[in-house]
Write a structure and sequence with these properties.
Elements: E1 33-37, E2 43-46, E3 77-79
Protein name: GL22412
């Protein structure tokens, strides 16, 4: 007998091997990150394109499938250690007291 897996069925269904097959994690609303291409070393902000386990047919057009600068594949794009807080780029100078 072949066991068929259906990710969106209830846990009471006998065709499902375990509850872990039913509980899928949604990554569609994940936040943007600061990314770095390990090939050209450019930094940019966004998300790396991945397939959501819960919504495998959803596509987000602004997710990066390759580096926008050198067209390296998405496995070359890594999350950067640098922060993307715009307030950190603003520095006060001594003349700001005027």
């Amino acid at each position: 007998m072949q066991v068929r897996k259906y990710p969106f069925l209830s846990a009471d269904n006998a065709d499902v091997e375990s509850k872990s097959d039913i509980v899928k994690k949604c990554i569609c609303e994940r936040p943007m990150k600061r990314l770095e291409c390990s090939r050209c070393r450019h930094h940019f902000r966004g998300r790396v394109a991945t397939i959501c386990e819960k919504h495998p047919m959803e596509t987000f057009l602004m997710d990066f499938r390759q580096c926008p600068y050198c067209s390296a594949s998405r496995d070359k794009i890594k999350e950067s250690d640098l922060t993307w807080d715009p307030r950190s780029e603003i520095r006060k100078t001594p003349d700001d007291s005027l």
